[in-house]
Write a sequence for this structure.
């Protein structure tokens, strides 16, 4: 099966610092990766779509300068939360898409719990 | 405005019964609709996909229906077990996945 990993699984950081979260597709090449955010008892909200080698496409209301996304290879995308604040505390989940035909071939990582103190 | 709603925030049923979860949407015309399971503190796990021209899809104890006229999908788990307890999310597949609010299912012995 297709496996997507995230690192770290949880992180605590101080307000004002930056945090990088990695998303890797372990056994397939991902043409597209997606980053989601999920607040407690809420659904997943798409933040951005990232294609290998090109700039990420951000959803409305998501600050691209605050959430930096880099998709440097077909198996790795990173999300950097810059100058983190307590309101950025959330569960961040990535997914990776294999193939280009439909969203069917999309696999989710286990998520990263970010707590900003 | 565009909306995806899933029935009740929580659904409690007895083991062995059939659980039925609802997903209603407005102002979308998805080509596909997907259902996911999410356990606490984990990412979603894909369960089933149904295409707009399919009325019903089955996989083991799971069944999904898709009515594009009513703009509704029903997700059934037959012979439910306590291990089925989780949050179930529907997701509309346009050019990206848009998730519903989720229904937390609790199956008690």
């Amino acid at each position: 099966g297709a496996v997507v990993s995230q690192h770290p699984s949880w992180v605590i950081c101080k307000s004002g610092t930056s945090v990088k979260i990695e998303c890797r597709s372990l056994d397939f090449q991902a043409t597209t990766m997606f980053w989601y955010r999920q607040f407690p008892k809420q659904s997943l909200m798409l933040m951005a779509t990232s294609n290998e080698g090109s700039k990420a496409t951000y959803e409305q209301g998501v600050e691209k300068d605050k959430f930096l996304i880099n998709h440097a290879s077909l198996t790795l995308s990173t999300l950097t939360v810059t100058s983190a604040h307590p309101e950025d505390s959330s569960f961040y989940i990535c997914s990776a898409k294999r193939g280009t035909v439909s969203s069917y071939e999309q696999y989710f990582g286990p998520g990263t719990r970010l707590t900003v103190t | 405005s565009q909306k995806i709603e899933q029935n009740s925030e929580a659904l409690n049923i007895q083991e062995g019964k059939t659980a039925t979860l609802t997903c209603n949407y407005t102002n979308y015309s998805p080509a596909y609709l997907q259902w996911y399971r999410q356990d606490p503190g984990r990412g979603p796990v894909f369960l089933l996909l149904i295409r707009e021209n399919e009325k019903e899809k089955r996989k083991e104890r799971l069944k999904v229906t898709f009515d594009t006229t009513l703009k509704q999908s029903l997700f059934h788990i037959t012979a439910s077990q306590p291990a089925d307890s989780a949050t179930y999310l529907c997701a509309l597949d346009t050019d990206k996945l848009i998730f519903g609010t989720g229904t937390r299912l609790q199956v008690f012995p």
Notes: The CA atoms of residues 6 and 65 of chain B lie 14 Å apart. The two ends of chain B are 41 Å apart (CA to CA). DSSP finds no helices and eleven strands in chain B.
